[in-house]
Amino acid sequence: MQKPLEIDDNREKCTRAGFICKRRIFYFLVEIFIENYKELFSLSSFCFYDFLRVFSLTIRD
Fold it and tell me: What is d(CA 28, CA 19) in angstroms, rounded to the nearest whole number?
């Protein structure tokens, strides 16, 4: 009975690690997109740009 529990624990750890990795990749891509296209944003969008940049840096862990 012990072995199935260990397998389930490992699967949960792998799933969580995969989720964290995907989340980091997503925010990295968002940051690259903003860096490349921020010239197209209007001046009123720079507040949003700053917010999104700080948000992505804090989520990264």
Answer: 14
Cβ atoms 10, 32 nearer than 8 A: no
User: What pTM was estimated for this model as a whole?
Assistant: 0.38
pLDDT in tens, 6-56: 555 566 666 776 676 777 778 888 888 777 776 665 555 566 667 777 777
* 23 touches 61 (CB < 8 A): no
Domain spans, the chain: 2-59
Q: Token pair for residue 22?
A: 């995907």
Q: What does the angle CA 14 – CA 16 – CA 19 come to, to the nearest 5 degrees?
A: 110
Instruction: Extract the runs of DSSP E, i.e. beta strands, from the chain.
Output: none
Our CA angle for 60, 7, 59, nearest 5°, is: 5
